Amino acid sequence: MRRFHSLLLILGVFTTSLAALDLPSNVEDFYDHVRDRRKCNNVLKGGFHSEEGDGGNFGYCGDFLDSYKIIYIQGNKGQLANMDIDCDGIQNGTGYDGRCASSTDTQSQTTFWETLRGYNVGQSDLNSNVHPYVVFGNQGTKQGWPTFDPRAHDVQPLSVMAVVCNKKLVYGIWGDTNGDDGPEAMVGEASLSLATACYGNSVNGNSGHDDNDVLYIAFTGSEAVPGAQGANWNASTAEEFQASITDLGDRLLGRVGSGASGRYVLEKWAVFATVIAVTALIAG
């Protein structure tokens, strides 16, 4: 019986496996550009932590909110965010392989379960083993607790998000938010299926990816929402679900202009030229 149970767990790993996509050149360029800039200039809200005990220098960045209609998470000195594992939502459902059992902070519902249920597609909530979702935004009522609601900037529930991790691209949805149940306000978290696509089956409910090199991109506007018919909410595997939103994700990533690193070089040369000009005026 134990050997049969182990076989089921192995099969479960395969059913939840999600293949990451090749990283488009414009997105790779943008990723490098963001890290080269070292910090966000238009912090929509800061004071968040990527891991407990760090400096709390992470925030939601709006540097390209107007030009590309995106928001992303960034820290200082070129840091982005890590990837903790979120196992909230449907428990022991389709694709369950036991890895979420180690989670110590699982919630029985995700933030937008009512929105999904309102689609009338037969799903009561998201399933971390099947739906590649991102935890984005922060709620809380504790005194002094930083909060951020992406909806204030027109990022809509269950909209498509793009995640750059391990030099790969994974499409997911905005499916949950961070609460105030811990000692510090955190960022950098995704469902088990999304994390598995990035880092393989070694991740589990209590062990994710610690380095702050993951780029989470949220898109504004209703066009980023697949809705009831635009995604396979009843998919039996994470790969099936991602396939149903890939075309939409590709269109949304088309907003991100290529050559961002080149523009950064031009920005630095512009600053350098200004310094030379000012120096010449002073010398004259």
TrEMBL record:
GO molecular function, one term: chitosanase activity
Signal peptide (residue range): 1-19
GO cellular component, one term: extracellular region
The organism's place on the tree of life at top rank: Eukaryota
Enzyme Commission code(s) on record: 3.2.1.132
Localization annotation: Secreted
Swiss-Prot/TrEMBL catalytic activity: Endohydrolysis of beta-(1->4)-linkages between D-glucosamine residues in a partly acetylated chitosan
Pfam families assigned: Glyco_hydro_75 (PF07335)
The entry's keywords: Carbohydrate metabolism, Glycosidase, Hydrolase, Polysaccharide degradation, Secreted, Signal
Any Gene Ontology biological process: polysaccharide catabolic process
InterPro entries linked: Chitosanase_fungal (IPR009939)
Record function comment: Chitosanase catalyzing the endo-type cleavage of chitosan, the deacylated form of chitin. Chitosanase may be crucial in the degradation of the deacetylated portion of chitin in the fungal cell wall.
Family assignment from sequence similarity: Belongs to the glycosyl hydrolase 75 family.
Alphabetized PANTHER family for the sequence: ENDO-CHITOSANASE
Protein name: Endo-chitosanase
Lineage, top ranks: Eukaryota, Fungi, Dikarya, Ascomycota, Pezizomycotina
